[in-house]
Amino acid sequence: MTATRTAPAEPVAPAPVRHTGRNAGMLNALAPFAKIGMVVGGVLSVLGAYLAWSTFVLNKGAFPERSTLTMFVEPLGVSGYRLHLTVLGIAVIVVALLRIPARHRIVRGLGLGITFVALLNGLWIIVEGGGFGAITASDGTVAFGAVVALVGGLVTVLFAQAGGLEPRPEWTWRLPWWAEWILLLVIFAIVLLLVAEVLTSGGQGGVVNPYAGVVFLSLLAALAGAFAALNASGLLGWVAVVSERHRVFSVVVLLVCALALPFTNAGTEYWMTVASNIGVYAATAIGLNIVVGLAGLLDLGYVAFLGIGAFVAANLSGAAASVIGIHLPFLLVMVISSVVAGMFGAIVGSPTLRVRGDYLAIVTLAFGEIFVRSAQNNIGSLTGGANAIPNIPQVAIGGLAFNESITIGAVRLPSGVLYYIAIVLLVSVVMLVFGNLKYSRLGRAWIAIREDEDAAAAMGIRTGPIKILAFLIGAMLAGLAGAFFAHKTGVVAYDSFRFLESVTLLSAVILGGMGTIPGAVLGASILFVLPEKLREFSDYRLLIFGLALVLIMRFRPQGIIPDRHRKAELADTDPEDVAREGPGALPTEVEP
Amino acid sequence: MTEPQATSEQPELEAPPEEVIAELAQDMHIATGTREPILETVGVSMVFGGLRALSDVRFSLHEREIIGLIGPNGAGKTTFFNCLTGLYTPTSGVVELRGRPMPQDPARVTAAGVARTFQNIRLFPSMTATENVLVGRHVRMKQSAFSSLVHGPQFRRSEREARERSEKLLEFVGLTRFSDELARNLPYGDQRRLEIARALATDPSVLLLDEPTAGMNAQETEATRQLIFAIRDLGVSVVVIEHDTKFIFTLCDRVLVLVQGELLVEGTPDEVRGDPRVVEAYLGAPPDEVEAQIHTGADPAVGAGEES
Fold this sequence. Notes:
heterodimer, A: two-stranded antiparallel ribbon, 60% helix
């Protein structure tokens, strides 16, 4: 096994870093102490994890069941955020002492993770535990674990920054093919377990479980820190390269992993439902990604196509409330829903021949509104109006209704698993459509139109039909998802397709990264899991959403998993910090 | 995937190698050996509101011919180009390509075999050089909807052909080393060359170049001249708008001088160079002084700017 680094090699005797720009003086003064500073930060983080966090009995319930934030339940038990802080803190100390490339950058990632974990839990204690008294000394006991850990995180980040951020190394290790297969298998299995862990962390949110949200967010922050550190070390980039080398294998393993989710601790009816809903929105977001991400046409009424698909499916499902009253097979219903939604897509897209930019956005906004109002008024008795279309029969194939639980050998899988499997397959199909079209003549034409419509026309691209095609295909994908959605939820009401949903979908695409599949899936997952998890914050949900979006647009405008093209467009801000496509980058994104 | 140091390298300034030209010419298969004009306009006029931008312009272009279009700023050169490429519909007059009326839509014009570059570079900045050229192949690629959905055999064949052609074209303009580089990162002169490669990817019989040497130094201008000769050798006929008279007079077979929308003089470079009307129209100054300037090749259009 040989290792070569293509990034500039780290000098053997580290030359003193010269900072320029903001706070250069302070950073230069701190630079000689970077190593010791990082170790101190790590030690403080671990220490913080072991100090008492709150001596208050939380006002959500009786001690000790509901007051897991005290130190005194399990004096030495390390779990949850304490475990994360300990692991991250020890990692900081180890990495700071090792001579590995991109050391400071790795430590900075870990430090950011520590900071956010401490901040989230500290804030939670303040909000729910009785104000600032809860995180400082009280009851005669020292209880400022959160403060110590937060300081530890900040110190770590500061000294890592002072030490000078190195360029991200690129590894070119090559293993025998079977070793790489095993490696990918292990990595994807870990990803699967992490996904299950994240999904179920904190349990089902709501009044009975006020901790769900913060436990979930804290885990996310810890994982984000670890992710940033791995990314900084260049290992993620290497894994992406390896999975590119074994593209077909990776796709198959990823699909198998997705299908294996019911066998993990997420395999309960509730989480299967949540996962299926994410799937519906992920499929829709990928469709929207064609229109917005590839062709660059802003569509503010996109959820209408999901609605059209859902109402068409509801009317053809044999539901008692539908006026048509025929019952067609599920697969046929899906095709019809998709085609009808596609027709409406072409109609909405036709103004693009004349209207550009902001004006197009207004047209699509109006279309979305027309759809919701028409559905609300039960137009043609097709939508049920305020009564919705309830009692849509379950999908049944060969006498097996999809909401039944199934037993494979000794394993009994919960109800909803079949819907989950169906949506995984549906999302795979949608991904395939998107990925294959993106790297075809048509996909290039879309991107060219996004880049410069006049130049595209001068290259012989007939921009009108090609733009309408983007709307049509995007709407067809949403229509597919809509047909599934109708059967899965059993009720289709106009209320599910309001403007807010369009905005959330658009946010999912922008947040995840425009023009990429993993971006859209990740964005949809985040934006549709958060409401599940943050039930107790439901009053502030939109506020938190908005804030998160503002922050992401400010610090990572290209989205979490950026498209190569889009990344370049926005790279001027800070090319150093533009991360490579992570492990989430599905191999389908790889250019052939 | 490190950001390349595109700007630090010296551009290659050699003319395209003979064998590359021969191979490409065979692939593109453009020249038919006809003696009829390929592109012809009769009495083309263009009126914007009360402004007469072009009046009664007559023009013809033959196979493997390089025609230069000069004139002071605002003479209507770019307007004429836009009439040729379907961006504008002439108020009166006809534009014919190989004896057929020119379609009135830029995309169809390109499909019919007329490609162009822009005065201010208009590449697809966030696509790689190869992808830019591949977009140029759009018109000549056949991919059915189904085949591109499943990436079937037809798709793979057409994609492979397009990529091979792109490689050859990038080699032709000397940009092979930048093939995976984003267009926005290329040095200025190379962006112009990439724009030419992209236009050539449409297999044009006529290539319209709008100020191909604007902003270039003497060395780059010379390289562009060699490149245009090589393009002619591919069998493509070329029309060039340029302010640099020395460039035009050493490049073109025929030169047209447009002044205030009218075709003032047409002839060989020598004829045009010696015509006192040209000098007068260009500068409105006493001929003896300026004539010398034109002969020495200095750019008489002082402050040659955006619109022409």
